[in-house]
Amino acid sequence: MEYFDIRKMPVSLWKNGAGETRELCCFPPATRDFNWRASIASIAGSGEFSAFPGVDRVITLLEGGEVTLDGGNAFHHTLKRFQPFRFSGEQTVRAQLSEGQMSMDLNIMTRRERCQAKVRVADRTFTTFGARGGMVLVLSGAWQLGDKLLTADQGSYWQDEHHTIRLLKDEGKILYSAISWNPAWPLTAVSQVDDLSLAG
C-alpha cells in the first residue's frame, strides 16, 4: 500500500496547453499497456479528450464549475461534483467548461478485457472486500487507513488487499475506487466480487 498527497505529485503539462495531469498510480508501473490507472487532471480550457481504445474511463469532478461532455450520438452529459460518470475511452468526447472556470477531476482507467472499476463516494467507515486493487482520495474530513491519518487531497492505493477506512470525525467524504478482474482474464480463475461494506 502506498500513500500520496496530490499537492506534492509531479505535474505533466498537456501538449495543447489546455490542462495538466498528476498520475497517482499505474499498474503495471510506467507502461502504456496498463491494467488500471488513476490520475488527477486540471482542465483550463474546453477541448477534446485523448482517445484510449479498449479502455473504460470513470471521471469524477472534484473542483471547479460544471463540465459538459459531448460524446456525439452516444451521450451528452454534464458532470456534477462528486458524481462519477463512466464512458468508453475510444469514444470521441469534447469537454466544454463553464465560462471562465477551471476544473479538476479524478480519472480512473481500466483495460476493458482485463478489469473494471467501481467508483463511489463514501461518508462513513467502510471495509473493502473482494477487490483486487483500489484507491481512495479524501474529499473532506479526517480518515484513518492503516497507521496513516489522511485529510483532504491525500489518499492511498493498493493491490490484492482488504482495508478498513475509518472516518475519525462526524462528517467527511472520501472517493473510493475498487478494481475487480474480469473472470475471463487468465490472471484469475475465479470471478472476483467487487463490494463496499459500509459500517454503521
Automatic annotation (TrEMBL):
Family matches, as InterPro entries: RmlC-like_jellyroll, RmlC_Cupin_sf, Uncharacterised_HutD/Ves
Source organism (scientific name): Scandinavium goeteborgense
Pfam families linked to this entry: HutD
Top-rank taxon: Bacteria
Lineage: Bacteria, Pseudomonadati, Pseudomonadota, Gammaproteobacteria, Enterobacterales
Annotated protein name in UniProt: Environmental stress-induced protein Ves
